[in-house]
Amino acid sequence: MPAAAKHRRPRNNRLARTLAAVGAGAGVLALPIIGATTASAAPATAPAATTPTVSTTPAGYPNNLDGWIRESLAIMAEKGIPGSYNGIYRNIMRESSGNPNAINLWDSNAAKGIPSKGLLQVIDPTFNAYHVAGTSYNIYDPVANITAACNYAAHRYGSIDNVFGAY
How many CB atoms lie within 10 A of CB 102? Predict the structure, then answer.
């Protein structure tokens, strides 16, 4: 075998050589560039049972702080109670940090035996006086608590948006 003989690789298209060098992942990304019209990925192997389900309120809103605020706003709109998402959220964060089961056992109301409860830290007499028809009578129910507190704030301050401290 002559020493001068050398295997010569055929010339390839520059794009094809680049794709081969980069790997299959880049090749999939480049499919539209080289004329492919479809690409598919392997089907997911996770069973459907491990997919988390989103809990909802009876009215169909997500059963979380965002959903409770939005459901309350819908009820408030029907009843003519003013307030905004941002005003409600700001006050909830200050009062309970978003915990619907929060209870204040140390302030002057608690000393009188009527602690503030729920997302917006409402006392029982205020909740009962400003309860909004169509919501739960449970002060810890997030939607009922928000809606009653906003109704109270509307009567006392014009709107929950005007509340920037303990009320």
Answer: 19
Query: Which are the contacts of 82, defined by CB distance < 8 A and separation ≥ 6?
Result: 76, 150, 154, 158, 159, 160, 161
CA distance 44 to 40: 12
Q: 31 φ, ψ to 5°?
A: -50, -45
pLDDT at 86 over 70: yes
- The tokens 């408030």 sit on which residue? 76
- The residue count of the chain comes to 167
Q: Which two tokens stand for residue 145?
A: 């608590």
Does this model's pTM top 0.85? no
Bridge-based pairing state of the strands 103-104 and 116-117 = antiparallel
